[in-house]
Amino acid sequence: MSNAQDPSQLYAAHEPIFPRRVTGKFRTLKWWLMGAMLAVYYITPWLRWDRGPQMPDQAVLLDISSRRFFFFMIEIWPNEFYFVAGLLIMAGLGLFLFTSAAGRVWCGYACPQTVWTDLFILVERWVEGDRNARIRLHRQPWNWEKLIKNGIKWGLWLLIGLATGGAWVFYFTDAPTLFWGLLDGTASPVAYITMAVLTFTTFFFGGFAREQICIYACPWPRIQAAMMDEDTITIGYRSWRGEPRGKQSVQTSGDCIDCMACVNVCPMGIDIRDGQQLACITCGLCIDACNGIMDKIGKPHGLVGYLALTDEPLERAGKADKPIWKHILRPRTVVYTVLWAGIGLGLVAALFLRANLDASITPVRNPPFVILSDGAIRNTYDMRLRNKHGTDRWFTVTATAGGDVTLALEGTDALRVLVKANETLVQRLYVTASAGTVAAAAHHLPLRLWITDAEGTETPKAERIYKDTIFNGKEDK
């Protein structure tokens, strides 16, 4: 008979975590941040911004149909995706900076998973009661009380998930129009599908998966160690002060009375006294819980608190901790800050220096040139003119090259075309070099095309840009 143990018995079924209600400065901070971030998320699509006629008046709008992103007075076009890339890089550097300075403060206070989980736990507490009541309800067999309370809780969770999915789709089209379309059934099927997916994921992630998303699905807990060092300020347990644990009536015991308050309030279900752990999101609730117990037993705060590894030997020796600024201002954080600020300033400069007109010039390669009946050489180009103004504009085209060339626009005898407001016009351009000229004889002649915005009429203050390309001549052998 084999003595091998059944592998299925090596694993325990997942036990839900029921955090206890706690009060304190960190819990209060989390409430305020949660309210502010949820308000921004749900309200922003309804804010209006006047951009003039024939333009969307939604303050923040990702307009997929016209391939533009509107953010109040800022308008980002597809060819300006570097702004989005720059913001993503800044977000990553900001995450590195805050993690290296203060641990996983993003995870504990601002991560969407944390924010919505906090909201779902709040609803759960309203319906079922605090920790002990929720544990009792979870463990009791199904009856009318359990069925009714879970039904109410799940119904409220679904409403939150529906509002979350609805708010998300409002960012991609006019919110009031889509809202009434959703109600009368005339909205796009994509909107209903997106809302259904986000409703389910919000309901499942915030109501059931909770801490498992942070531990198993999120990559950041495994990356954070590379951002942290011994000067990073994070939550820790002062074992030199708390150990040995025991009742306060025992003279040799430390300040920790092993009340488990720090464990019972933890949304991740960990014991901070076991040291820094992958699952800790640095939310500070264990600090509030422990400080409350210290008040009751007449001990000073800080048994559990924010500290750095370099402070522990100083505290053990009864010396003053290093100032916070010495923990924060160190080479790692300075480099992150400089990079973050440099990219931010570069984006701001690019935003204010960009032109309100844009063009791209693409030579037609097949054939590279055409020989006309009089011996002249003609090249053909596809020109895309983009008008970023809110009004129609006339664009004129001129050229400079190493030899004489003449320009012609398809469909018009003039060298100017009208481009509608906030639209892109594709225009065919012909560049011709007379026989015997430098351009006609050159193999590849640098050609600079100038596009001028005449501001609706011929004015001396016209915005002007240029695009460089190549003129293909008939090289003499």
Summarize this entry quickly.
This protein is an alpha+beta fold. Among the domains are: 25-88 and 104-216, no CATH class; 357-471, Immunoglobulin-like (Sandwich). Helices cover 42% and strands 18% of the residues.
Describe the structure.
The protein is α+β, with helices and mostly antiparallel strands. Among the domains are: 25-88 and 104-216, no CATH class; 357-471, Immunoglobulins (Immunoglobulin-like), CATH 2.60.40. It has helices at 25-43, 82-102, 105-110, 112-128, 131-139, 144-170, 175-184, 189-209, 211-217, 220-223, 239-242, 261-264, 285-297, 312-316, 324-328, 331-353, 438-441; strands at 60-63, 68-71, 74-76, 234-237, 304-307, 357-363, 370-371, 377-387, 393-401, 406-409, 416-419, 424-433, 445-453, 463-471. The strands form four sheets. Strands 6, 7, 8, 10 and 12 form a five-stranded antiparallel β-sheet that branches. A four-stranded antiparallel β-sheet has the order 11-9-13-14, with no helix packed on it. Helix 4 (112-128) packs antiparallel against helix 6, helix 4 (112-128) packs across helix 8 and helix 6 (144-170) crosses helix 8 (189-209). The longest helix is centred in the first third of the chain and has 27 residues, at 144-170. Mean pLDDT is 87; it is low at 456-460.
